[in-house]
Amino acid sequence: MPTETTDASAALFERARAVTPGGVNSPVRAFKAVGGTPRFIRSAQGAWLTDVDGNEYVDLICSWGPMLMGHAHPDVQAAIAGAIVRGTSYGTPTEPEVELAEEIVARTPVDMVRFVSSGTEATMSAIRLARGFTGRDLVVKFAGCYHGHVDSLLASSGSGLATLSVPGTPGVPEASASQTIVLPYNDRTAVADAFRMHGSRIACLITEAVPGNMGVVPPAPGFNSFLQTTCRQHGALFISDEVMTGFRATAQGGWGLDGAVEGWVPDLMTFGKVMGGGFPAAAFGGRADVMSQLAPDGGIYQAGTLSGNPVATTAGLATLRLATDDVYARLDEVSAQLRTEVTDTLDVVGVPHVIQTAGTMFSVFFREGGVRDFETAQDQNTEVYAAFFRAMLARGVYLPPSAFESWFVSAAHDDRAISQVVEALPAAAVAALTTLEAS
Ligand SMILES: *Cc1c(COP(=O)(O)O)cnc(C)c1O
């Protein structure tokens, strides 16, 4: 293994810090939770990232989900190149938007979609729509679920059952946070109590289809169905946030793991990441009677200069068309292989851990016993994860730089990429053990 140098990344990070807060445009990229120099990536191909110092890494974040087909897939590249020569934005309706909308409607239970440019915008717009539709203000969310940096959705720590929460970050007005009820995930009693107390004022409940932003925490069997029924009983809308899981966890997203089997449908859904094919594109969609309340047909306003951008929608469409059942079967295989290798290697050295899975997504928690909510997710040894992360990185494997994230694989993760991960694991397991024993 060549000695890894990070001089060029370090120099860029220093320049970046002078002109951008923390040197990054999204906080987790700064490596604060794991230590070390954030790697500035110069290029990517298939399952591999190359940084500005020339180091190569097997990529296990895939741009935090979007790169389902791997980086620089030739068919996606060709579609993008074809779109770019026709111009990059017109501010008019275009054909690729219609095609991508039809593709999403065909693959998911939504009747209609509207495009936006980020997952944050998708959840923000879905909530406005739910409030406009119901004429109510309160939003219910779960601690540990992330729905983008929307004011009312950043509240993550409520003081318990059916209590109106305080802001989770400076800058969120009290008035905004006080419209949000934050509940513990997987807790039916908390949900039932909140609806019993405030049901007539609740516009919607929003949840990740399978939470992936506190690490992967699957819903208990029947939990999402229970949420949907509870919302319906109280005249609130059930919003399933599939920005991460959509077209990723399974061919039918997180919904493919329960709703598709049990026979229920969320009122609204949000999508992003994979459907943008690596470009800023996201969407919200759902029941036709709700969606048609949006302007220009209805009175609820929502708009965007670059919404449905022709290059972004072309990239998304090319990606979804490549994402066949065979691709998802391959992703399942790669994901299962990696989970087995990780758990076997950690078992050999005796590092307690638990791996949780949602379709092709999974994450590794350094703790004993399963994680069912944010409280148990926080009860893990993040120092051990940091040591494990750094050892993997030094051996050419780029894991999520936080213990509270999912690992993502792509259709381009071949035997060579998997071998590089497998070869890195024993030393990383020892690094984890050393940190564990010192803590
Ligand atoms: C990533 C994510 C978002 C936010 O999407 P952005 O494009 O980063 O604004 C919202 N919800 C979930 C579940 C996500 O994983």
TrEMBL record:
Reactions mediated catalytically: (S)-4-amino-5-oxopentanoate = 5-aminolevulinate
UniProt GO molecular function: glutamate-1-semialdehyde 2,1-aminomutase activity; pyridoxal phosphate binding; transaminase activity
GO BP terms in the entry: protoporphyrinogen IX biosynthetic process
Residues with the N6-(pyridoxal phosphate)lysine modification: 273
UniProt pathway annotation: Porphyrin-containing compound metabolism; protoporphyrin-IX biosynthesis; 5-aminolevulinate from L-glutamyl-tRNA(Glu): step 2/2
Principal cellular location given in the protein's record: cytoplasm
One Pfam family from the record: Aminotran_3
Catalytic activity, EC: 5.4.3.8
Record localization: Cytoplasm
Alphabetized UniProt keyword annotations: Cytoplasm, Isomerase, Porphyrin biosynthesis, Pyridoxal phosphate
InterPro entries: 4pyrrol_synth_GluAld_NH2Trfase, Aminotrans_3, Aminotrans_3_PPA_site, PyrdxlP-dep_Trfase, PyrdxlP-dep_Trfase_major, PyrdxlP-dep_Trfase_small
Top-level EC class: isomerase
Cofactor names: pyridoxal 5'-phosphate
GO CC, any one term: cytoplasm
Family: Belongs to the class-III pyridoxal-phosphate-dependent aminotransferase family. HemL subfamily.
Assembly information from the UniProt record: Homodimer.
Listed name of the protein: Glutamate-1-semialdehyde 2,1-aminomutase
Organism per entry: uncultured Nocardioides sp
